[in-house]
TrEMBL record, chain A:
A GO MF label: transmembrane transporter activity
Organism listed in the record: Fuscovulum blasticum DSM 2131
Keywords of the record: Cell membrane, Membrane, Transmembrane, Transmembrane helix
Membrane-topology annotation of the record: Multi-pass membrane protein
Subcellular location: Cell membrane
GO cellular component: plasma membrane
Pfam family, one: BPD_transp_2
Superkingdom of source: Bacteria
Major localization listed first in the record, in broad terms: membrane
Residue ranges crossing the lipid bilayer per the database entry: 12-37, 57-83, 95-111, 117-140, 149-171, 202-220, 249-267, 287-311, 323-344
The protein, known as: Sugar ABC transporter permease
Automatic annotation (TrEMBL), chain B:
GO cellular component, one term: plasma membrane
Annotated signal sequence range: 1-24
Chain ranges of the ABC transporter substrate-binding protein PnrA-like domain: 29-311
Name of this protein: BMP family ABC transporter substrate-binding protein
Keywords carried by this UniProt record: Signal
């Protein structure tokens, strides 16, 4: 009989092999799915994973990968810090929205003033917006012991309503003929976040994401706070004996992830999206959860995972338009990635054993 | 139906100046591309646009190639999808939701040889951007007539998507028509803040039914409100929106507004093929065949059906305008004087309820 047995210590091999195996399994099963739909699976997989980077339109799409990966990486790094400590911020989407709304409000409040301080202040306001929104579940958790998963998730829907109010009300473009949506930042240079190098897709959000990844890596590997985060996740009791305050840790992790999500929102609204609109948020906050796990909660892994995820989006769109695949098939394909990741992840902490033997002595 | 005349009248009516010149020569083959906000199986808005795309293929066969992308979010992603399509050799790109407006104009600037057609928007910043829309409010007057005569509780409901002029036109037209045939009628509006989200749309319908509403009109894209009305066992009726939604015949779906984009799409692609394409701004309604009224079923008494059909035919004949004064705004201020009809400019920028509608517009 085949049975699962807990490993005494997590397997390092499987820790790093899991994402690779998950991607390969996704390609195989996804390929079968595409074949069943009457498409050439090799062509579809090539369109998704190869063409955006090396294909005919790579000169444009490579930049788009960065545009798409930037916010995912930024949000996922914040989430990963919390996830490591066992603090589950599921509401990054809401914090992303609030960062954009607060930051955009600051910028539009001084329209059309031209001052080089406007954009930096907006960036701070964006981080503040995300931070403040994350503080709600954090304070409710530390004061009243509520569940941060539920509270942060529910606040996403509240944030969406505020976004709708902003787009149709207090941030509505006065010159928009009554249509919803704010002024477009592309026509307000002092508050805009344009491409830094034309055609590269790199804007301040991408720069911030890459810098944050390095900083987070240093935090986790060198800094006492990083050590406390890891300890709290692995051995909460030991952490408490070690003098780690759970309250402070919750505030720190929720605050950081909220602020980073808020930053992502601000860079997006002033850059690629251009304006506050009713449908401004497109799920980066939720997709970042997949990215965080795909990257093994490791900041450098998350950078790779962010690009991989961006590839499935950009390549998925290509496959959808050029090969006539339904959008749902692409979504299934992306969902499979998380599914296989979690499934294969079992092997990190468990191993398969043949027979009903009770002994688990010895070997790792 | 004559599209040429329609084009001319619409252009005159809106008195807009067009910058674009005609394409010098025709084309042997056109690649026509469509960007959809929902899935083609939504049974409403996107489904109808896709029917239009299929009609183009049917009409021109091998001379056209159709490409489309479903469920494209409004915003930065739309810009990428449009750029990919333009790079991929699309000659004409139809962007079929209001939220694609800025993306359409931004990409159009980079690809002056590609024609862009944006549905329901108002920005034509470049000579290669045209806009097109339908006078859905004309159909709402027909629905309002049915609603006013059919309601037993005197409470009728409307599920709004977003408070944009197109939706405000519909709500006001629906209410005015209902009020005309039933002075006691009260209208409740619920805002769903989505174009396509069956769960939210069903919740909105439920909230209306809980308030005692027994006729529901929806300005969202799915069939969920009708599915919810169906649960009331005949006590609640509604209308097909954007598509006929015939699966819910004869009740709760007692009639429908059908968006008929096919003639427009065939005309535009055809113009590109034969070299007569020009920038334009089209806003056609029942008369032009762009807005069709779906069959009024036997769940409606004969006199109600007759009254509704009269409204439809009068609008088609041009003898009746759904917004004919005297009409006051909700706050009591004058809008249209006795006998005056609403200018198109007012309708395209409408951001108010007419007098008698309770509740606030989200601000």
């Amino acid at each position: 009989m085949l049975r699962l047995e807990k490993r005494p210590t997590p397997s390092r091999f499987w820790l790093y092999a899991t994402p690779v195996v998950a991607v390969v399994l996704t390609m195989i099963v996804g390929g079968i799915l595409f074949a069943l739909m009457g498409k050439n699976p090799f062509e579809v997989i090539r369109t998704i994973f190869w063409d955006p980077v090396f294909g005919e339109f790579a000169f444009y799409l490579r930049g788009q990968l960065l545009v798409k990966a930037g916010p995912l990486i930024l949000i996922a790094i914040g989430l990963a810090l919390g996830f490591r400590a066992g603090i589950w911020n599921i509401g990054a989407e809401g914090q992303y929205i609030m960062g954009a709304v607060v930051g955009a409000s600051v910028g539009l409040a001084v329209f059309p003033t031209d001052n080089r301080l406007i954009f930096p202040v907006m960036v701070l306001a964006g981080a503040f917006g995300g931070w403040a929104w994350a503080m709600i579940p954090a304070i409710l958790k530390t004061r009243f012991n509520t569940n941060e998963i539920l509270v942060s998730l529910m606040l996403v829907y509240v944030a969406q309503t505020i976004l709708a109010k902003a787009a149709t009300g207090f941030l509505k473009n006065p010159e928009g003929m009554g249509f919803p949506g704010s002024r477009n930042f592309s026509s307000y240079p002092a508050a805009a976040n344009p491409e830094l190098i034309a055609g590269s897709g790199l804007h301040w959000g991408g720069v911030t994401a890459l810098v944050t990844a390095v900083l987070a890596y240093i935090l986790l590997s060198r800094h006492i706070a990083g050590y406390q985060i890891k300890l709290a996740g692995q051995a909460p009791r030991a952490a408490r004996f070690h003098g780690v305050s759970p309250t402070r840790l919750v505030m720190l992790c929720m605050g950081l992830s909220g602020a980073l999500a808020g930053l992502a929102g601000l860079f997006e609204v002033t850059g690629p999206a251009g304006q506050i609109s009713i449908d401004f948020n497109t799920g980066y906050g939720f997709t970042a959860i997949i990215v965080a796990f795909l990257g093994r909660l490791n900041p450098l892994g998350i950078v790779l995972a962010g690009f991989l995820m961006a590839l499935t989006y950009v390549g998925g769109e290509m496959a959808s338009t050029n090969l006539g695949l339904p959008a749902a098939a692409i979504q299934v394909f992306q969902g499979m990635l998380l599914f296989f990741l979690l499934a294969v992840d079992v092997l990190t902490n468990y191993r398969f054993r043949l027979g009903a033997g009770a002994a688990s002595a010895g070997a790792k | 139906m004559n599209r040429r005349t329609l084009l001319a009248t619409a252009a005159l009516g809106l008195s807009l100046a067009f910058g674009g010149g005609a394409q010098a020569a025709g084309m042997d083959k056109v690649k026509a591309c469509f960007v959809y906000v929902g899935p083609i199986g939504d049974g409403g808005w996107t489904f109808q646009h896709h029917q239009g795309a299929l009609a183009v293929k049917e009409k021109f066969g091998d001379k056209v190639e159709i490409q489309y992308q479903e469920s494209v979010p409004e915003g930065a992603d739309a810009e990428r999808v449009l750029t990919q399509m333009a790079l991929g050799g699309c000659n004409i790109i139809f962007t079929t939701s209001f939220g694609y407006m800025d993306a359409t104009n931004a990409v159009a600037a980079k690809f002056p040889d590609v024609k862009f057609e944006h549905a329901t928007g108002f920005k034509r910043e470049h000579p290669n951007v045209s806009t097109y829309n339908a006078r859905f409010y004309e159909g709402r007057a027909v629905q309002g007539t049915i609603a006013g005569m059919m309601t037993k509780s005197n409470k009728i409901g409307y599920i709004g998507s977003f408070p944009i002029p197109e939706v405000m036109n519909g709500i006001n037209s629906y209410y005015l028509a209902a009020k005309k045939v039933n002075p006691n009628v009260e209208l409740s509006v619920v805002w769903a803040f989505t174009w396509f989200d069956p769960a939210k749309e069903a919740d909105a319908a439920k909230a209306l039914i809980d308030q005692g509403v027994d006729v529901i009109a929806a300005h969202t894209d799915s069939t969920a409100p009708l599915a919810e009305a169906a649960k009331a066992g005949g006590a609640v009726i509604g209308f097909g929106q954007a598509s006929d939604m015939e699966a819910y015949k004869p009740s709760p779906r007692v009639s429908s507004i059908i968006d008929n984009w096919a003639p427009y799409y065939v005309e535009r692609v055809g113009a590109l093929l034969d070299g007569t394409y020009e920038q334009s701004d089209i806003w056609a309604g029942i008369a032009g065949g762009e807005v069709l009224i779906g069959e009024i079923t036997d769940a409606v008494p004969a006199e109600v059906k007759a009254a509704a059909e009269k409204v439809r035919d009068d609008i088609a004949a041009g003898t009746f305008h759904p917004f004919t004064g005297p009409i006051k705004k909700q706050d009591g201020s004058e809008w249209l004087a006795e006998g005056a009809t609403a200018p198109d400019g007012d309708l395209l920028g409408m951001d108010f309820f007419v007098e008698g509608i309770k509740g606030d517009i989200p601000k």
